[in-house]
Amino acid sequence: MGPTPRRARRWRWASLLGSTALAVTAGGALACPAGAAGTNVDFATHCIPPAVAGIPPIDGTTTGNISVDKTSPKVGDTVTVTYTVVTAAASNPTDLALPADIMTPTGKVALGGAQSGDITVTGPKKNPPVPGKAPFPSFSMTGTFTVTKAGQITLSPGDYTIHTSYILELDTPCTVITPPAPVSQTVTATDGTPANTRTVSLGSASGDVGAAVTVTGKNFTPGAAVTLAGRAGDKQTADTASVTANAQGSFSGSLVVNDKATTGIVAYEGASWNPDKGAGPAAYAVNDNTPVPAGSQKLTTTVKAGTLSMSQAGDSVALSGVDFGQGGASTGSLNTVTVKDFRGGPAGWSLTGKVTDFTGPGGRIDAGRLSWTPACATKAGSPSTCKAGSAGTVGSAGATLASTANGTLTGGEFTVDARLSLDVPAFTPPGGYSGVLTLTLT
Description:
Elements: E1 11-18, E2 41-47, E3 58-68, E4 78-87, E5 103-113, E6 117-122, E7 139-146, E8 151-166, E9 168-176, E10 185-189, E11 199-202, E12 206-208, E13 211-218, E14 225-232, E15 235-244, E16 251-257, E17 264-269, E18 278-283, E19 285-287, E20 308-312, E21 316-318, E22 328-333, E23 337-341, E24 349-355, E25 358-360, E26 363-365, E27 370-378, E28 387-388, E29 392-393, E30 399-404, E31 412-424, E32 435-441
Parallel strand pairs: 1-21, 12-19
Antiparallel strand pairs: 1-32, 2-3, 2-9, 3-4, 4-7, 5-6, 5-8, 8-9, 8-10, 11-13, 13-16, 14-15, 14-17, 17-18, 20-23, 22-31, 23-31, 24-30, 24-32, 25-26, 27-29, 27-31, 28-30
C-alpha cells in the first residue's frame, strides 16, 4: 500500500525535534507524532496466514486505538492519524522465533460523519522478538488526511496487514469482518480557508497571433464563473474569455490570444485575479510572424515558469538539556529552510509550522511551551522580499515562520531560520522528550 498522496502545491516537511536531556538521562526519538488518544475498541477480524504456514484462516478479535495530532482542526488543515493495533488477532504463523525489527505493518483508517473515505497508514519496521506461534506484539501505523468539510468526523480502525521479512517475505492480511469497526476517535472540524488546489493546463504551449488555445481547469468551485486571461509578464492582457465550472469543479474553454507579449495564461474566479481563487500562469508563447528585413535575423527566447519549493538542511534538532528540579529554557536552532519561488506569477507564499506535544518516559511537555524567533533573508535580485514571522508560541495551532506578499511580479530565493526555546517545567521526570514540528509551504 502506497503512502497517502500529498495535496498539490503543498510541501510538508516533518522535523524531529531532538530529545531534551533532563539530568543525565539521554533522550530518544519519537517514532510517531503524539496526539489525543482515542478509545480502545474491539472488532471481529478475519486473518489469513501465509500459505507456507499450512494453517487455516483465523477469526479473532482485534483491539485498536486511533489517535490524532489535533481534535479541533479547521477546513484545509492536515491531520496526522496514528492507528495502534493494541492486540492483534493473528499470531506468528511459524514455529520459528522471529527476531526483532522484521515486522512492517500497513493498514487503513475509515472516515465517517462529515467526511468519508479511507486513510492509508504505514508503520516502521520495528518490533520486539516474537517466539514461535506467539501473538504478534502491539504496533502503530501513521498517515494523514486533509479536512474538507466542517462537522464531526469519526475515525474507525480498518483492515491491516503484517509483513514479516525473515528467511521468507510473508504477509498476514487481517480484514474487518463487519465494517466499519466501532468509532475510536472523533474530531470536530470548523470552517477555515481551504488550501487552493486549483490547476490549469493548456492544449498547446504556443500559437500564432489570433489563434485559440484550449484551457482546462480542475478543482474550481462547482458551478462558478471562471475567467480565462492572458498575461504579459506581470500584467493581464485584453485577451479574456469566460467559462463555467461543472459540478465536479472542472472546465474546458477556449481563449483567443492576440497580444504578442503574452507569456502565460491564468484562470480565476471573481471579478479580478486572486491567487486564492485562481490557478496559473501556465506558460504560453505567441509566435511572432512579423517579416524579417532582408539581411537580418530574428532572435527569440523563452523564459519558462518554474515551481514553488522548499528544502531543509536536516530533519532533527537536539535542544540543550535542562536540570531536574530547575527546568527552564531548552534551546536550539531550526535547520535552515530554503524556499525557491520560481513561478514568475503574482502570488506570494506563506511558510507555517505547528508542533505536537513532547512525549517521554515521564509523560509529556505541552506543545504550547515551544516558542520561536524567526529570521528570513532574501537573495539579492529577488523580486519579492521575505518577511519573518512574529516571535512567540508555536504550539499545536501553529504560527507563521515567514512569508512574502502578493504583487505584480513575485519570486526569488530565500533562507529561513529560527531560534527555538522549549520551556520545560521544573520537576519534569528525567528522560528524553521528543515532538514533531511540521512545516507547510503554501
